[in-house]
Design brief:
Blueprint: H1 2-34, H2 51-75, H3 81-104
Helix pairs in contact: 1-2, 1-3, 2-3
């Protein structure tokens, strides 16, 4: 029973760290890329008015996620490396809802 509660506590702690990292990354990139006033230079309609910022968001998000995974793989013991891979795939899956939020805002 003690092992079960230890497992739950570790997963809960990992989830809290993951949510904190992802929210800090999302709001930081949103502040850097999307908080400027937007003026459209041309009259041509576009699907996403700030498509350059969206592309920069995707590239910076991927760079930070991959960099964090590489750094964590160097510091975490071998028996916990599969946890890093799992959270990495969750972070990659989160890029789609983040893009929907950015485009709709």
């Amino acid at each position: 029973m003690k092992k079960f509660f230890s497992f739950l506590f570790e997963n809960l702690l990992q989830f809290i760290y993951f949510i904190a990292f992802e929210s800090a990354l999302y709001f930081g990139l949103q502040y850097l890329l999307f908080d400027q006033t937007f003026t459209q230079d041309t009259k041509d309609p576009t699907i996403v008015p700030r498509w350059v910022s969206v592309v920069y968001f995707i590239l910076l998000y991927l760079a930070v996620i991959i960099g964090a995974m590489l750094v964590l793989n160097n510091f975490v013991p071998r028996k916990y490396k599969h946890h890093i891979t799992r959270w990495f795939w969750f972070a990659l899956a989160l890029i789609l809802p983040f893009l929907v939020l950015l485009v709709n805002s």
